[in-house]
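Friendly challenge for the regulars: who can give me the structure tokens for this chain first? No prize, just bragging rights.
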Amino acid sequence: MDRFSCMQVFVKTVELGSISAAAIELDISSQVAGKQIKSLEQLLEIKLLHRTTRQQSLTDAGRIFYEKAKYILAEMEEAENFLAEIKSTPRGKLRISAPVTFGNHVLSLVIVEFLKKYPEVNVELILTNRKVDLIEEGYDIVFRSGDLQDSGLISRLLVPYKLVLCASPEYIKFNKKLANPEDLKNHECLVFTHSALKTQWSFKKNNQITSVLISGKYWTNSGEALRIAAIAGQGILLQPYQLVSDDLNSGRLIRILPEYEPINSSMHILYSRDRRMPPKLKSFIDFILIKFGI
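First reply, four minutes later:
Bragging rights claimed.
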């Protein structure tokens, strides 16, 4: 007889108090249930139950085996459920948070691809530069740029968020030429208040990193607003490439100090620890790691 079936009958017999009760619970006859327990004892070569016409009780060996068998059956059930979840079709609603610029210019198109591949999934994308609380605010997954704090969440590192230093032709024409990042101290910088970029910009050349304290008259938490100000000639902009790529190609903005590479901003996805991750979330994480994983 199947060993796991025999273990299941034995565990149910202990939990329900009799072989007949276990047989009813498992939808088998009492005779079959009794045979399975007998087969298990023969296989193990030890008596598990003291049985009389009126009552039954565990032997010392039976008591030990019951605890082990109960754990094994629980692990088997969890493994079967896990495999069933993997095989099931991703469906349902995903609630996602992401930074505004990344969400608008990068993530939105990726989500469209994901929805075409998994048509039974719905996505609610919330764009904010605020650090949201994944658990308290009911998100399934969060995209976060910059350094992470220890939150107890699972984090996966994505490809860095490439930054570009640029300004309008008008600004470049009517202001002092920049020879190196230190010259930014004497220029009007457009300040992004969401991250460490509001006080300091860092660059790399020949494996040497240069950090410069910056200042400016225009501060905002919107990269799009800073982009418009840069095109209008207000100052020098340091923002993601995806935000300004069309402006660079059209000539509305010109890259400055191209030999100095801005230190890119890290990007992570965060999600909660869950041994039984729903297929909708697992499929999205796998999709994102294919697109942006390192």
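The first helix runs from residue 3 to 16. The longest strand covers residues 154-161. Your move, everyone else.
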